[in-house]
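With this grant's support, we have settled on a layout for protein records. A representative record follows, to show the layout.
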Amino acid sequence: MFSLASRRVASNVTKASPAFASFRFMSSLPSTMRAAVVRETGDAHALKLEHDFPTPELKAGGVIVKNKYAGINFIDTYHRKGLYARDLPFVGGQEGGGEVAAVSEEAAAQGIKVGDRVAYSVFGSYAEYTAVPAAKLLPVPDGVDIDVATSCVVQGMTAHYLVSSAHADLIKPGEWCLIHGVGGGTCQWAAQMAKIRGYKVIGTCSKGKEDVCKNLGCDELIALDEVPGTAYEDYESMDIVQRVMEVTNGEGCKAVIDGIGKSTVDISINSLAHRGIFVSFGNASGAVPAFPVLRLIGKSAYVTRPKLLDYTTNREELLWRSNEVFGWLKEGKLNVKVDTTFPLEQAAEGHLYLEAGKSKGKVLYEI
């Protein structure tokens, strides 16, 4: 993970400083910090900046990261609303990037040192400092900026597993893939990665984001009317299934990647090819309603509802995905757009911006 030279330095310091146990590698940290905290679930204003929230403690096997950026993702809004329950109070966010500020003995033995540039995905990133297990760290290579690296961790890694693994190899290079909402952060990544994997891509987007989406490499782009104040398009403004069948010569798509949810479930299932797979990973328009499994019989279709944690189950898998994503970034194969940044003091405004569908790329807090 880190260089052999770094490991040697860490080893020498360890032997020279036995009295400090697991806490010898650290810079001076304040006892409190700024953090965007949810004490009661609710709308965006339930996320409030606090200036004296306790700084997390360094734990065995972990590090403390001094955050430069924190990513804002739709799943954060689900936590804030209480749709996905968390113990209260909690610091928002689960995606961050910055520099290592404190290192446990166990992390130092892996070559991790104060000052290393890293990104990560753990709860509590809307803050100046976050405690991160060493196994969750992604070393950021030279040539990749921290804001881009932070953007990669949830959306980039999610896009990677969606186009690389969640379809269970039911789509092959040269076959058609439908991706909804390619104007949004995750599916901007997914559309580009699907092309890297060799799939033919149909993307849906709002007319207001068509300019951004034209640069993603989609073979066919279906631009839809906007739904003001939402993060999704008007999926009834044209017959998408008919257009998909025209583009694919009546075959349909071997995989449909759908983060929209309630508004697109019928479109997604009806756009499938025989033995195709409906990959439902998000709820931007609301949760997918229950439907009878018999509905899949017409095309012997498959359906899956995956999540990122089940596709980064160990260190090897995590690094395989991140190394591919960072490699594509360095090679110029991925065009990552950071749409805008908000200061942490504007925590609520960041969520409101994302939920209103205004973003044309990644949205970050600058810590």
About this structure: The longest strand covers residues 62-71. The CA atoms of residues 13 and 25 lie 9 Å apart. The chain is about 25% helix and 25% strand.
